[in-house]
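User: Some background: our group keeps a shared notebook of sequences we're curious about, and every so often someone picks one and asks for a predicted structure to add to the entry. Today it's my turn. The entry only has the sequence so far, pasted here. Could you supply the structure so I can complete it?
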Amino acid sequence: MSGITIFEFDTLMAASSNFAGAEGLHAVPEKVYAWLETRCLRASDDGETAWLRLTQRRGRRVVQVTSFVGVICTPDGYQIEVLPKVGKAIGGGVVEARQLLVEMLCCLQGFRHVQIDSARIAAARMPLLEVFIAEYLRSVDHIVKRGLRSAYSSRKDNLFALRGKLLMAPHLRQNLFRADRFFTQHDEYSTDRPENRVLRAALRRVLMLASSQDSQQLARELEFVFADVPVSALPQIDFQRVRLDRGMGYYADALAWARLILDEKSPLTGTGGHSAPSLLFPMEAVFEAFVAKHLSKQLARPLILKTQVRSHHLVRHRGQNWFRLKPDLLIRDDDLDVLVLDTKWKLLDGLKVNGTDKYGLSQNDFYQLQAYGQNYLDGQGDVVLIYPKTASFYQSLPVFELPKVEKLRLWILPFCLKSRRLAIPNGAPFANVFTDKNQVEAAGV
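Assistant: Of course. Here's the predicted structure to add to the notebook entry:
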């Protein structure tokens, strides 16, 4: 299968446009570009999340990917791999960006089954979709080595020997002139159970998607093992029937991958149904999950980190609470809220302080954090905006004061994706919240 690897917010144009070559601008086949344009228009009509958008470059229409990463597959098999933009900002290449994305995805609720070491190794030599496929095949191979589980299922059939219970009415209808047959209902012990059916259906899908010879060969070998298992005709229903009985824990990883493959979408995007399988993930959610996982391990006891808290509302009207306030992260000491943090997947520039740039910060984010501080911290303490650390934003910005809320301070801090640490300014009132003293930065670090 042919394809291309790009970064967030790169643009795609038809190959016939003849002006590719600019940074972030890539040419794709005519049919691929036409399909992407159609998806843009359909998304705007249907109110879908904008994972693509139409824009212009040099007076011509182009398609721009947004802050969704992963794999876009077109109906003719062309694959567009979209990697995090921070891969370019920190000076890494495609391999580093892909490995970073794999590590970050492992923090998502639907991806915690990923074996990170093997996935990172695979990411160094194959595109993201192939990494996913390899992980699924690895998990199914693990099941085969442990043995496929069988179960009793009720069957109705016209047999040559009496087995189980004779169903008289259908027996008389079908066997009135055939004394050698018996229409029976009986229990059969076989591997035909919903867990195995969805695994085989996903194997069939993988055989169509995989371009790696190793993956193709392993998929064929595994499907041979599943030869007696019918392919799930209705995966959604079979998934509802899945029951991981005692001793079936080793099925969990493969079923998680099968659900992802057969749903043709990620757990978060809701962008399935493209007439082609696409696996896309909003980087805002991925970054939030990554920060939450690692910060929760670095807290001083007995502090705990809560995600997506919904304890307060912005206003009350006629006895009803309106506009729920949901900070990404909240550090709590028993029932006392200590620190409010919000993650933002945006690249700041610590040198652009003058004019309209203001480091690249958004005024709306400040309004949002002020509301969080007033409601969760009673207007006194510290609120934090977290952005990815880059060469242009490598240390905390000077603290922001809120004149109308004098006891509330707002901090802008970088989170290092490599060291997995939040850079905390020396002397910050909340430095003791974290146990790792290496997080406290010196000026200029």
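Suggested note for the entry: The longest strand covers residues 151-159. Residues 153 and 187 are 5 Å apart (CA to CA).
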